[in-house]
Each structure stands twice: as C-alpha cells, then as structure tokens.
Amino acid sequence: MGVIRRFLWYWLPPLAWMGLVFVLSAQPDLPHAPQPWLDRLVKKASHALAYSALAWLYLRALRHRFRPQYSGPQTALRLVSFGLAVAYAISDEYHQTFVAGRNGRLSDVAVDAAGACGAMLLDWWLERRRVLLRHPTSGRRPAAQ
C-alpha cells in the first residue's frame, strides 16, 4: 500500500469524523426530544459516543504510525489519543460560541473527555484480556502455598 493510500486509510477517518462534528456543531439549532430530561440524556450520550469514536480513530491511526517502532504496552498511544480528542472537544466548544443559538459548555467538554476516556479504558481492558487469554499465567499472582 502506498504512502498516500496508507495515510488516507488511517488518517482520513479521524479527519472526516472531526469534520462531521464541526458541521453538526455549526448548526444553529438541533432538534429537541419531547421531554427535557430525554433531550439532555440524548445530547450528552451523543457527545460521549462521538468523542469515544474520535479517540479510538486517533488510536487506530497512531498505532499504525508507530507500529514498527513501538510494540510494547499501548499506554502512551492511548494517552495521546485521549489528549487529541479532548483538545478537539475544547476547540469544538469554543467554535460553538460563534454559532447563533449555541454556546460552549465546559460540562460538554467533561462529557466528551469521559467518552474518550471510556474508549481508551475499553481498549486497555481488551488488550489485557487478549494477553491473559494468550498467556493464562501472565499477570496473575502465584497461588498461596
């Protein structure tokens, strides 16, 4: 696979996702659910899911980029992915301050960060599970005698 094709395969998805988030946050008024509590729940869940997906897409791209040089635990890549997602969340909330009918909220950044963190924790758990399934004795304490 050529360099451009690899770039498009791994980096176009997070860039496209960022574009989608930007377009949605530029809408002056989004539809509302009939009940205020349901509207809040749907919007907060959407924030968390959108940024969990973004963090995972960053992680996917970073893993590909650093695969040859870095084959150990993925903690650093997860932290960078989380940081990129939170940085974009902050910039998105700032962007919303310029959109009529919208405003930037720190609480939305917190929900976005929670979604990104959840995705990275899920990835960590899945990696840990794979290691334990491959090597059942790794990571376990020896039985008491």
Give your account of this protein's structure.
The chain has helices at 3-25, 36-66, 75-96, 106-134. It starts with a helix and ends in an 11-residue tail after the last helix. The chain is 72% helix and 0% strand. 23% of the residues are buried. The radius of gyration is 19 Å and the shape is globular. By secondary structure, it is mainly α. It contains four helices and no strands. It has one domain (3-27, 35-134).
What is the helical fraction, as a range of percent?
over 70%
Q: Tell me the total number of β-strands.
A: 0
Summarize the main sheet.
none
Structural class: mainly alpha
Mean pLDDT: 89
Strand content: under 5%
C-alpha end-to-end distance? 54 Å
Question: Topology as H/E string?
Answer: HHHH
Low-confidence stretches: none
Number of domains: 1
Global Rg: 19 Å
Helices, by number, come to 4
Shape from CA axes? globular
